[in-house]
Amino acid sequence: MSTFETQIEQSKKEVAVAQSKIAELSARIDTARAKMSQGTDITLDIENASLDDVHAHSDLMNANIAELIMGLDDVTAGFSKDFDGLRSKTGWEKFVGIFSKQRAESLRSERVRAASIEDKLQDLIAKSNTIQAMLQEQLNELGHHKNQVEGNLEKTLVDREAAVTVLEEIKAEITALDPQLIELEGKLAVVTAPKERAKLEAELAKLNSRHNELAQLEQVKLSESQTLERYIEKGKTWMDSLQNQIATQMVLLNKLSTDTKQRVVLYDALSKSLKTAQQQDVAHKINEIGVATDKEAQVAMAAIGAATNNKMAEMMESHEEHIVFARKVLEEKAKADERFARRFEKIVEKHDANSYGEDSLGAPTGGAS
């Protein structure tokens, strides 16, 4: 198994681990929500819902996938050199051409026929699709958890609003009771008649009982509001994390998708280059045969030559459309590369400087092969 394929397998494992960590954290938050609905204390569940482990695995996964994508870029750049080599003669073919042009063309034709660039490119596109499938799966997983947490947050925000409303009502009632208590205590201080004192003491006891009841209820509702607030803050933090992870996945997907389009353009360019070379070879051979043939054969040759020229003309006419499309893809790639570079600046710097293994990021150190 090549280094590149090993990295792909490693990335699949890292995606699985990252997804398990995300699912674990979401499960803890869901458990807290369920306990909260039952009136159970959720402090421990919320405190245990740490993002650090999730971020560590997500960063490792994204760094490895970014390395894979840049490795695909390197391999693709190598294809361009291969394409150029097919369009021209090698040094040996030029040397042979000094003595025999026919032999030189034969050598080049054999080299073109034996070229495995198309297979390599198809393999590269297949690897791109494999990485894209991993990224899309992770993006879907993140979207699922985001929707789940978002739904829970909406319910919790409604619950906290209700709790705060009740708390404010309790505080308002306690505030209204305070002057009544002070007034009754003032009357008791000056009243001496037993019957009147007994009446005032009964009213005071009733108000004190209500005041104590409201004070206890205030503590309960305050604790409930604080619990809901902790859940909301943890939920918001998790939502922000999920949204950031989704943004990262989309940058990676956009870069990979644009690169794949470019590879398709390269594949098309290769095919047309090979076809053009073959047509030119046929035209040369027809011309050579024509010199030794009679007039009847020359008429046939002219017809074939006209057909060949017509085909060449059609290809040249379609060249403009091909170039416009290729330029559009290159523009899209430049934009995708810029977004990718901003998001993965450290990885790009390591890649360009070939400075792998000089920090503790933990990403695989091997390049694509």
TrEMBL record:
Phylogenetic placement of the source organism: Bacteria, Pseudomonadati, Pseudomonadota, Alphaproteobacteria, Maricaulales
Protein name as it appears in the record: Uncharacterized protein
Keywords for the protein's UniProt record, in alphabetical order: Coiled coil
Coiled coil: 1-35
